[in-house]
Amino acid sequence: MSENNRLIIFDTTLRDGEQSPGASMNLTEKLEVAHALKDLGVDVIEAGFPIASPGDFDAVLEIARQVEGPIICGLARCNQEDIDRAWEALRDAPRPRIHVFLATSAIHRDFKLHMAKEEILRRAVEGVTRARGYCEDIEFSPEDASRTELDFLAEVVERVIEAGATTVNIPDTVGYAVPSQYAAAIRHLKQNVRGIDNAVISVHCHNDLGLAVANSLAAVREGARQVECTINGLGERAGNCALEEVIMAVKTRADYFGLDTSIQTRRICPTSRLVAHVTGIQVQRNKAIVGQNAFAHEAGIHQDGMLKERTTYEIMKPEDVGLTQTEFVLGKHSGRHALRARVQELGYHLDEGQLQQVFEGFKTLADRKKLIYDADIEALAETQVHSGPALWTLDSFHTSDGTGTLPMAAVSLMHVDGRKLQDAACGDGPVDAIFKTIERISGIVVKLRDYQVRNISVGEDAQGEARVEVEHNGRIQRGHAVSTDIIEASALAFLQAINRLATRRQPKLNPQTETIRAV
Ligand SMILES: [Zn+2]
């Protein structure tokens, strides 16, 4: 395939995807996802928005240092401070990219920025020039491009390319575009911007009308050669363009698109599961490509056709997206080697110490249940990934309840500084009593927004997974944990959410004066 037939895949799960409420990840989790994205074969990883918070800065810095292969990109508003900070985070990356954005639509110019067109043009050029002083790979995004007057958009794009932008991204920031109109905008740029061939045209679509993938593909037909997307379509509101859908559309309809990507499609399902686990945001069952039912043919007439010839109803093979037909089962006598291999196949990158922990957890679990399934191994591996800065750990707990008695819980928590704190409380049930006790000890009182328990594999001895979603000072945080004891799983999930609330640092910017959510 020639360069012109190659579609660049820009993943922004860690930046735009992470802006989704409650999807925030700690550094360990971000690194895990970044390694998985590298294995998946994405060309560019947008690792964060360095000036937005110290956590974002650290994530970009560490990913730039540790994840080799893809281009590592950091986002910046079009001002000196942002661009300098982005470069500070990216400077150790073998292939850094600074992504600068500035809104261009009339509504943003008038109500958000209070800048005239000339001012926007001047700032855009200044920003790109400054970024270009640091590295050669510069992306510029006119925010809200899809609602920007076409002639002005063309002018901005021309000027930033002159100033040295190597990728120009045309974001549909608010998910307003429809495919034919969005395609026409790309065509307009192709035809009217001097020097357009000196930069890659990129698209970045939001899914507010359910059209993010359709819009992206329409733009690709007009010559856009970079698609910005996220795993599982993760993102604020209705989410971003889903990576897996774009990839499988381009691959399945190679006859129509004639494009190639560097994505290892067999890594799609493992990466999707990893992101769902790490963020706690599950994929809907009927989601294209990665949903649980995406390849399930239930209708009798379909099954009959499938048995005679698969292609009668199947346009893709489940194994092409990494959906394994037979589930791998380990038992008590499985060795360290088999476990390590399975952990790696499931997409986790654990070091020796972490693998040892997983192995010990596996042995303990094998004493409690006969067969160990992938879901059990994922749960063990995740515990390692999640083991970020935990302020509190569960030392022990005891609950009592029953018909006609008052449900009570006694909990002992260890603080990271070595203190052991104990307390007890009553509740509507044992789980409620535990949550109340943890709130009393930690001093963090939350509103429980959601609480779910489900089994993660099959059989009477299956492990239970507890998920909680809590709200504290307007911030949403999720936690999840797995155990053969659902009360223990519930306590651990709740504690994880509390720990995340306690350790997550506040954004540096004042959201009243400047928006830090972008593009
Ligand atoms: Zn976006």
Describe what you observe in this structure:
There is one protein chain. By secondary structure, the protein is α/β, with parallel strands linked by helices. The protein contains 17 helices and 16 strands. The strands form 4 sheets. Strands 1-2-3-4-5-6-7-8 form an 8-stranded parallel barrel, surrounded by 7 helices. The protein has a 3-stranded antiparallel sheet with strand order 11-12-13. A 3-stranded antiparallel sheet has the order 14-15-16. The relative contact order is 0.10. Residues 505-515 have low confidence and may be disordered. Bound molecules: zinc ion (ZN). Zinc ion (ZN) binds next to loops.
- Output mean pLDDT: 91
Biggest sheet architecture: 8 strands, parallel, barrel
Task: State the oligomer.
Answer: single chain
Low-pLDDT parts are: 505-515
Small molecules bound in the structure, each named once? zinc ion
